[in-house]
Amino acid sequence: MGIKGWKEDDRPREKCLTNGVSSLSDSELLAILIGSGTKNLSAVELGRAILKKANYRLSDLGRMGCKELCTINGIGDAKAITIIAALELGRRRKIDDINKDESFISSRQAADVFIPLLADLSHEEFWVMFVNHSNKCISKKRVSSGGIHQTAVDPKLIFKEALQNLATGIILCHNHPSGNTKPSDLDISLTRNIQQGAETLDIRILDHIIVSGGEYFSFSDNNIL
Hints:
There is one protein chain. By secondary structure, the protein is an alpha+beta fold. Helix content is 42%, strand content 16%. The protein has helices at residues 12-19, 26-34, 43-53, 58-62, 66-69, 77-96, 107-118, 155-164, 185-200, and strands at residues 125-131, 137-145, 169-175, 204-212, 215-218. Strands 2-1-3-4-5 form a five-stranded mixed β-sheet, with helices on both faces. Strand 1 and strand 2 form a beta hairpin. It is elongated, with a radius of gyration of 21 Å. It starts with 11 loop residues before the first helix and ends in a 7-residue tail after the last strand. The relative contact order is 0.10. The model has no long low-confidence stretch (mean pLDDT 88).
C-alpha cells in the first residue's frame, strides 16, 4: 500500500505538517526524500530497507555512495542521488554554523568544525584552519585528498596559504577511515616537519586533530605538539 492509502496520521508528509519534522522517524524522512516505493514496498518500507543496508546508522548511510545505494531493490540513480544530496546539505549546514567570532581555544571546538567534514569519508583528507592572533577562524582549506590509508601533504602549500591569509596560527586536521584515531609514526613525523617550518615563519601550530567517525584525537591534548 502506498502512502496515499494510509491513515492520514501515518502519512509522512501530513505528519510533518501536523506535528513537525522532528516527529518523523528516519525511515519516514527517507520516504519523503525518495518520494515513492515499489510495487511491493511502500516508500517508508523502502526507507527501512535503506536503513537496514546502513546498519541502522545514519553515519554509515553517509558513507554509502550511489553504486552501493543502487544495490537496494527499488533504489535507482535518481533516488540515490537525492539521498546523497540531502546528507551533503546536512554536512554543509553544520559547517555554516561555525561562529566566525569564536576563538578556538580547545580541541573540542576544532573537532566540532572538522567532524562534519571528514567523519563520513572512506578516504583520507587533510584540512587546515587558518586563524588570526585572537585564534578566530579566517578560513579553512582542504590541502590534500588521498587513499584509504594515507594522503600526501606538502607543507609548502600550507605555509603559502597561511601567508596569503595573514594567518598567525593554524590547526591541522585529517581523518582515519579505519576507525582508529591513534596517530601513526608518519602522522607524528609530518606534524613535526610542519611545526619546524611554521616556527621559521612565526606561525603557531595550535593543534593537529585526527577524526574517525564521531571521535577525535588531539595532538595538543596529548602533549605531542
